[in-house]
Amino acid sequence: VNKPLDASSIEKLAAAAQEAQVKYDTAKKTFETQQAEQAKAQTRERIQQELRLMEENRHVYSEEYLSKVASDVQAKKKQQQQQQKKESSEKKKPMNIVLFYADDWRHDSIGVAGTQIVKTPVIDQLAREGMRFTHNCVTTSVCWISRATLYSGQYMRRHNTTMPDNALWYRDWNQSWPTLLKEAGYHQGHVGKWHFNSGPVSKTWDFWRSYYGCHQCGPKHVTKMNEEDSIDFLKQRPKDKPFLLSTCFFAPHSHDGNPLVYVPQNSSLQLYSDVDVPIATSNTQEAWLNLPWFFEKGLNEGRTRWKQRFNEPDKYQHMMKNYYRLISEVDYACGKIIEELEKQGVLDNTLIIFTTDNGYFHGEHALAGKWYPHQESIRVPLVMKDPRMPKQKVGTVNDEFTLSIDLATTILGAAGVEPGSRMQGRDIA
């Protein structure tokens, strides 16, 4: 079985292998030739079919048709170029800014915050079209200090404004957002409460109508004046410039010295007449006695105002209903101003911010007013409707911790302006 092959056998096997290879190569070449011929035949058939189809439909490819196709293509291209140019122009167009800034109004006194009493349909709609910040706080719960913080973007420790006649934050006025926006070409209007002397501001604001202190000091209610003056600004503004409108409502701040305390417009007196406003569970003598010693028992301003406003059930109902009426009036005024923005066709390019200078005790801890670092005093509403906001964020609630010092940087960011070097907040848009 294992007998070695002789030379003759090896030659025969080699010859047989060579013959087999020749047969394989010949068969392969024949197959490939047939495949190529078949492919050529299929190609010829496809071309012939297309030629027959073109012949049958030769009118479709007439000169008139081809000219129309070319014209349509050019028109579509031009339309796309115009749309791209429009979008590019809109992106470069500076955003308008409207700030609604109310007084003595805490975080839960708007409808979307869950209150079952006060009605604020306009602010609620802004929240649905934008974003509501649930944990927004002022850094210092005092009217003029909070306002100095708003415009300077600084903590009180830095701007050092302790009293209205001590407007030390004016030292950094050249870094305030009104000044920086003015330098960026914005047309600016201030309406309502300022709370300081005019100082260096007169050259910054193109439209200036400042007043506060009472609700019905003349023929018109202060909130109605805020509304009408804001609309006047919008109507008078130059249409070729971006604008900033700061509407600072006096309401629902009390009219100090007036025994009525809160004086709504006659048209609002029917509001809340058929409801009972719940009294805070901590509106008790026990809660007052549990406060720290430095509240100076009996001499505390918050306690004094509590006795004037909230120490009796009937008095509490009367005061709170008028307070809520003032809030609903501010909400209505915001709605009329927004309507004017829509009439002018600028609403879709306008950042709208609603917030307040501080919160307010509604009898909690047996106190009235603000000043103290409880939630009722420092936590305030913040609603922003921003045209830049992604669709998936519209109508959402932001539970992150934000502060009043953030607004200066946020406003400047919307305008594409770098914040002042001494500002301490962040852009939360």
Q: In which range does the helix fraction lie?
A: 40-55%
* Rg over CA atoms: 38 Å
Main β-sheet: number of strands, strand sense, barrel status?
8 strands, mixed
CATH-derived topology of the largest domain: Alkaline Phosphatase, subunit A
In the sheet with the most strands, the strands line up as 4-3-5-1-6-9-2-10
Question: Structural class of the secondary elements?
Answer: alpha/beta
The CATH superfamily name of the largest domain is Alkaline Phosphatase, subunit A
| 3D shape | elongated
CATH class annotation of the largest domain: Alpha Beta
Protein name: Sulfatase N-terminal domain-containing protein
InterPro entries: Alkaline_phosphatase_core_sf (IPR017850), Sulfatase_N (IPR000917)
Keywords: Coiled coil
Domain Sulfatase N-terminal: 96-417
